[in-house]
Structure formats: structure tokens, C-alpha cells
Design goal:
This protein is of the alpha+beta class and 302 residues long. Helices cover 23% and strands 41% of the residues. The chain contains 2 helices and 20 strands. The chain has a 6-stranded mixed beta sheet with strand order 3-11-10-5-6-7, with no helix packed on it. It is rod-shaped and about 170 Å long.
């Protein structure tokens, strides 16, 4: 409890310093409650809401705490009730925009009194939901880099983008580029993120938009990617060729070794005479036969 003495009356209040999330296009309430001993039904009290030195809203209270007159210097502001009960001087901000994201102060004032009693400081943070992200593939030629594009729009504040390959988060390194653009009318964000990868195997790709202010994570549908059939056929052909070559080499080695073993076995168990000696013996036998035949012819003629 804070007690403040100002000229003419005693203020006692509870400060509600806090931050309020206001959805863009909807209404938000900036809470503030006066718990003082001075009555708000005296007919000479005003409630003022400011952002810095700029007056946003002022309401003069009449008898019985009724709002006798209000001036809104920013479209769509008013006190939440026309009769102040229980010290509730909260401000309603309608149709929240990104520009309403500021810190607001509430004061109680009296005509002719220079000093004002500060009641509350409340910050308003505008937020907006992004659309569910969509992932598209921007193809490349076989063996070249493939790009995946994740797109989401109409949100605030700027989100964090996460990429997942095969359900595992992909680090945001040089392969990821993220671009944001502001819509001129609403100042909301459109987000485009590009992931560049080489598709060397069948994989799944997805992206996630993280809005920390809203504690909201939006995940795209999983994009399934198949490796190129041409790459698969080439790999299969190379495997078949390598296998056949290995089989041929093994068969050749086995044949050579088997032949060598057989030759060694034959030399050990079937010794043979030198070829030259065998040829000489046959020639001598033929010569003796011829001489004998000639001698027999000579004797017959004489």
C-alpha cells in the first residue's frame, strides 16, 4: 500500500505495474484500481491516462462516481465502466493496433490542483497470430542444390523460424535465409524462410514459426522428399559392376592357383625323360631298319 499526500486530499493506492497482451483488431483492458480513502464521488476528480507526456484519455467524474464527461484523444478508448465502483479506473482500448504497444500511466487529478496522483503504469504489447506455415519445394537439376520455402503471414511480433529435417532441428547456418516484410496498413509481418540442401536420400522437411510473446508454435505439414530415381539407378549399376568385377578377379585367382598346384603335383608323381633323349632313340631305331633293308636288297641282286 502506498500513501501519497497531495494538496486537498489523501491518496492511497495499489500500483499495478504489469504488461498486457492485446490482440491486433480486438479490445484490451489496461487494469488500474484506486484503493485510496478519498471518495471518487466528490464531483471534482478526473481520471487521466497518458503515454509519456501525451494525453490519451481523460474522464471527469460527477456525483456518485458517474462519468460526466470523457475525451478520447486516441480512437477507441474509454473507461471500462460509466460508474466508478470499487475504484476501478481501468482503460479499455478498442481495435488494438501495433502502434498501441506502449507504456501507459494513470493519474487522478483535481481542477486547480497542479500535482496529480500517479496510480498505475501498465504496458500494452500488441500481438497477432501467424498463419500456419506452408512449405514448398523449388526444384533443382539432378545433383544440384534444392530449396525449400516456408511462408507464413499476418503475425506480430517477428517470429523465430525453425527448420526440421527427418524430425531433427536443422541449425540456422549458411543454408537458411529468412526474410520479413511489413504489411503497410497493419504493420504485421509476412515471413519467408528458405532452406537450401542437397537431397542425397529420402527425407522429410518441415518448418515451425515460434511466436514467443504468445507462447505459440505453429508447424507446417511435413514435406516428403524422395531421392532422384536416376541417382538410385546409377548407384545400383555401380554396385552391380563392382560386384561382378570382384567375382571375376576371385575366379581368375582361383584358376591360376589351381593350375599351379596341379602342375606341381604332376611333376612330383609322374617324372618324364627329357624330350631330346626320346627323339634321339627313335631316330637311331629308324636308321638301323633302313640299313638292314638296304643290305638285304644288295645280297639279293648279286
Amino acid at each position: 500500500m502506498l500513501i501519497i499526500w497531495t494538496t486537498g486530499f489523501l491518496f492511497s493506492m495499489t500500483s499495478l505495474d504489469a504488461c498486457v497482451i492485446g490482440m491486433v483488431g480486438e479490445s484490451a483492458v489496461l487494469p488500474c484500481v484506486y484503493n485510496g480513502t478519498f471518495g471518487l464521488d466528490s464531483g471534482d476528480v478526473s481520471v487521466e491516462w497518458r503515454t509519456g507526456s501525451e494525453l490519451v484519455h481523460t474522464s471527469a467524474l460527477g456525483k456518485d462516481g458517474e462519468v460526466a464527461r470523457s475525451v478520447s484523444l486516441r480512437n477507441g478508448t474509454r473507461l471500462v465502466t460509466d460508474v466508478i465502483r470499487n475504484g476501478n479506473v481501468s482503460l479499455l482500448v478498442s481495435d488494438v493496433t501495433v502502434r498501441d504497444s506502449q507504456s501507459y500511466d494513470c493519474y487522478l487529478t483535481r481542477p486547480g490542483v497542479k500535482s496529480s496522483a500517479h496510480l498505475c503504469t501498465v504496458c500494452l504489447s500488441a500481438a497477432a497470430h501467424f498463419t500456419h506455415p506452408v512449405v514448398l519445394r523449388q526444384g533443382g537439376a539432378e545433383g544440384e542444390e534444392v530449396q525449400f520455402i516456408c511462408h507464413s503471414r499476418g503475425g506480430f511480433p517477428k517470429p523465430r523460424v525453425h527448420w526440421f529435417i527427418d524430425d531433427t532441428e536443422h541449425p540456422l547456418v549458411d543454408t537458411v535465409r529468412t526474410y520479413s516484410t511489413l504489411l503497410p496498413d497493419s504493420e504485421l509481418y509476412n515471413i519467408t524462410s528458405i532452406l537450401s540442401v542437397n537431397v542425397t536420400h529420402d527425407m522429410t522437411v518441415s518448418c515451425l514459426m515460434e511466436n514467443r510473446l504468445l507462447s505459440e508454435n505453429l508447424t507446417s505439414f511435413t514435406f516428403g522428399v524422395e531421392a532422384s530415381p536416376m541417382v538410385g539407378r546409377a548407384s545400383e549399376a555401380m554396385w552391380m559392376f563392382t560386384t561382378a568385377l570382384c567375382v571375376l578377379v576371385v575366379a581368375l585367382v582361383v584358376s591360376v592357383v589351381g593350375y599351379q598346384i596341379k602342375q606341381d603335383y604332376d611333376r612330383r608323381h609322374n617324372p618324364q625323360k627329357p624330350q631330346e633323349s626320346e627323339d634321339s632313340s627313335i631316330a637311331d631305331q629308324k636308321e638301323r631298319v633302313i640299313l638292314e633293308h638296304l643290305n638285304s636288297l644288295t645280297e639279293t641282286t648279286v
